[in-house]
Amino acid sequence: MAYWAKSLNALVLVTLIASIAACPQYQQNTKSNAVTHPSKNMCENDDRTILDGTPWLVANSLYGASAMVGSSCTYYDRVEAPAGGNPRVVWRSTTAIQNIKSTDNVCKGYANVGLISNLQTPVSSISSIPATYDVRTSIPMVSNSKLHGSGKAAQHSKNSRLTTPTGNICFDFILSNTKGDFTSTSAQELMLWLQWEGGQLPIGWDRKPVATIDSLFGTSWKLYEDINTGNGMTVHSLLPDTQFSGRFAGDLKEWFEALVKLGRFSNGAFVNVGNAGSELFYGDSVLEATLGLQINLR
Q1: Across residues 161-187, what is the average pLDDT?
Q2: pTM of the model
């Protein structure tokens, strides 16, 4: 069974950090009206929308596009800001990627919502990371040509048979003992897998789980670890014994605390990158998501 062979591309992260630096810091909206931004469909590599006045940007990061036959688009819909609650971003990912044997274990991209506020902060300075992730996935019932535009996607014929998707739904953070470091071999990537399809598995799967974490977010978890040979960074992937179906809610600071107890990093480590999304390998799918994610400081 194939396992996940590629971590977030450094170029994607460089672009993300540049976007973060250009953004004003988010201030929580306590009013009932939602923050208004025009909806946008993003189908090219590194298409992104910065949502000023929120903690996020929405990105279509197709760093494996050179190995992709087909297309994948990320659609930003709207921001919801309920009175007395944390804001949420509503977004969608629509994918039609052929399964080519020679590239079936190459991650084609990452449809994601990235944090742009309260990063480059030590774990000890974070009070909470409240997160809600509501998702619904489906295989489209219309031809792929109606879902996507022209260009390379045209090779994925409108008459082609729909393929079960392969990929995952996850949270992804990068921590380091150095503020701002998200690319060196001293940095560490943390992945919290919520759902996965098509037999896709994490880096380190072939080495078996290195630890078990009981009673986190209502279930027990297996921790897989190994080096990403593409960038030399250690990846710590936590997979639940029972996949989350449709909804996740929890304080991600508890995830960090569990790994601190295992000695993976200290409370002095800086949280330099944070996001949530779906990794794409191949297949036909529509993912509809509503995400709440923010870092609260002490």
Answers
A1: 94
A2: 0.86
